[in-house]
Design a protein that fits this description.
The chain has 358 residues and is α/β, with parallel strands linked by helices. The chain contains eight helices and 17 strands. Helix 1 crosses helix 7.
Length: 358
């Protein structure tokens, strides 16, 4: 048999560049692919953003591939990205929820779309520079395992991958720390060795989500009332897309003490504010579940749950409340359970599953 063929999603960053080299070292036949997904980046933004999706990323990836002696291709996924990521991002904010577009991009673009295109050219696997590991468990199922570098672990953003996707994915960077990856890049003479990590949401480089939504959804987000937890009107807000649960900065209202967003009510165009302790809760509900280490949760399960990317996690009991709905009861109250975000359940180092917070 010949060498197994791997398509590496090369973002133009150090992680994916070194991932390609690690796979070459392991004996794979490696092809580099950069996904064009949103591309109308001004020249002056290229170096400033250092993102994973802009035009500058294509050139950095091309140079890295050339340096490593592998073929490099550019594939256009702009249509898929608009439908599965940008439209979803805007719709969620307009409905008063806080989306995680990186999770949607991982599932539907970096995996679903890329895997199909890679299969068409005869690839056995796809690979990326994510900090995560994949193992096939004793029960036959594939599951994500936390990376060797806990500080850079990215399993939270990958919880939604399917069994088929996991079975055909390689994460060579998952066995190393970020410092080790950069050291490899420096030894290899890659120009990406000291490139900054990409920003959180690549298609909104100025982080002004509300402006982006107005411009791309072609809607004017109306102002509305700030209301207190008892329903009393206490001021005016700039539009619901400016706010998220737990937010206390940039509210534009003076209360003489710290207050936070406790709820967003799109049907009334209201943003509810309350005392700082009002955003602590012990329960959440989630749907759009994706079970990973188990086919489905039977009865109750004890897990460590993360409710946002940078959340340390908290112990909880999870039970199914419907065909595609679960309830999570935390041992201790957690701050700012946010509809639209993901909750991911960990069984030790392994991802048991996760879903979207209701």
């Amino acid at each position: 048999m010949g060498k197994k063929k791997v398509v590496v999603g090369m973002s133009g960053g150090v992680d994916s560049s070194v991932a390609a080299w690690l796979l070459l070292r392991q004996g794979y036949q490696v092809l580099g692919v950069t996904m064009q997904i949103w591309q109308d980046e001004a020249l002056e933004q290229m170096e400033e953003n250092g993102g994973c999706c802009g035009l500058s990323a294509v050139e950095d990836a091309r140079q890295a591939a050339s340096h490593l002696g592998i073929m490099h291709y550019v594939m256009n996924f702009k249509k898929d990205f608009k439908e599965k990521v940008i439209d979803y991002f805007m719709d969620e904010y307009l409905c008063g929820r806080t989306p995680n577009p990186c999770i949607a991009c991982n599932r539907y673009i970096k995996w679903e779309s890329l895997l199909k295109r890679s299969s068409d050219i005869g690839a056995d696997y796809i690979a990326t520079g994510h900090y995560a590991r994949i193992e096939q468990l004793a029960n036959g199922r594939y599951a994500l395992r936390k990376s060797a570098s806990s500080a850079k672990d990215q399993t939270y953003a990958l919880y939604n991958l399917t069994q088929e996707q996991l079975s055909r994915t390689l994460f060579p960077a998952g066995d190393y720390t970020k410092e080790e990856i950069r050291a490899f890049a420096e030894e290899l003479g890659l120009r990406t060795a000291h490139k900054p990590d990409s920003q959180e949401i690549c298609f909104v480089p100025d982080k002004d989500y509300a402006r982006f939504i107005e411009e791309h959804a072609h809607v004017k987000i109306p102002e509305g009332n700030f209301v207190w937890t008892d329903g009393t009107v206490i001021g005016r807000h700039r539009g619901i897309t400016h706010y998220t649960i737990g937010q206390r900065k940039g509210l534009g209202i003076a209360m003489g003490r710290p207050v936070v967003v406790t709820r967003i009510c799109p049907e009334k165009n209201e943003v509810m504010l309350g005392e700082a302790d009002a955003v602590f809760s012990r329960t959440l509900r989630a749907n759009r579940l994706n079970w990973m280490s188990v086919e489905r949760l039977d009865g109750e399960g004890r897990f460590l749950a993360k409710i946002r990317y940078n959340h340390a996690g908290a112990m909880c009991t999870v039970r199914m409340t419907g065909e595609d709905e679960a309830e999570c009861i935390f041992d201790e109250p957690v701050r700012a359970v946010t509809p639209g975000q993901a909750v991911v359940f960990y069984d030790g180092d392994y991802v048991a599953g996760g879903g979207t917070i209701l």
